[in-house]
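Lab notes, practical 5.
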Amino acid sequence: MLTTAIFPGRYVQGEGALEALGEEVARFGSRAFAVMDPFAMDTLRPRIETGLGEAIALTAERFGGECSDEEIARLAEAASAAEVIVGIGGGKALDTAKAVAHGLRRPVAIVPTIASTDAPCSALSVIYTPEGAFKRYLVLPQNPAVVLVDTGVIARAPVRFLVAGMGDALSTWFEAEDCRVKRGANMTGRLGPMTAYALARLCYDTLLQYGVLAKAACAQQVVTPALEHVVEANTLLSGLGFESGGLAAAHAIHNGLTVLDETHDYWHGEKVAIGTLALLMLADRPPALIDEVFGFCERVGLPTTLAAIGLGGVDDAALMRVAERACAEGETIWNTPHEVSPRRVVAALRAVDAEGTRRAKAMPRAAE
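Output from the prediction step:
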């Protein structure tokens, strides 16, 4: 039996880490092409150019907004002369940079400006249509050469991004555990080692211990140990846990939710949080654990009802579209160690919505 885990080449995190960008990138070449999302281009470019130093020639292009085949092709053409690709911004910009580097066979350095997903560390790009609907996973032959996270930048981003990252990270242990029980493959196509499952559990424990404190620090735009811990959980632990532990129902249900236009204004991690709650229902997790996860979502502000991701009043026909996409052939939902069908996915989503609504109505009375 073969087990496999994969990791980024280097992971650098801390306040002021942008100052070390030149040192990290220079190991791969002197001509860099940066894919920057609008925030990075408009706000961070002077710091990035300073961090790279005079020894590295930088060409930068503004990211168009969706990690689509069309956007990847456009940027790859512009980056053809570069020796190293640098992705700077949110998850879709980073996935696009990874895909560009893969197409050009160049190393890639990843610089997230928000801690909203576990995309930075992975050998994976999630490809969408230009309109924002999930299209496919692009599995890459190697992880980023460098992931550099400046927590000073993360702390100044809107709190919603950090919370969304907690929603994405929240799924990590549950999906890895389903893969472990079902002996489902991780993102390499093989079983994960015990290291991956242990890191996935550490991710969950870190969120529960430090999530509320990290949110409070981010609201004040300050870096604290709690914020550092949660940024690491959102970025590194979640990335290692999902990639080497495996995915199951939560991300498949997220992918299904993207077929409904009403969800497109909500972040990946917010929809994954609903997928995680549905996983708990679908996989018959203990009621005490379900209560713990609902409670965590409520404390940090993650959605617990369908209305919270734009689907208030959604009918069963629309939810069946979600469920059928989630249960498509080859989707990760088949790593669930319980019976799976579109009908059961609809039932799980309805159960989540009912429980989230019940708890929301009970909260004012509990406070009194």
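Observations recorded by the TA: The beta strands are 11-14, 31-36, 57-62, 84-89, 108-112, 124-128, 134-139, 146-150. The domain at 11-155 is CATH 3.40.50.1970 (Rossmann fold).
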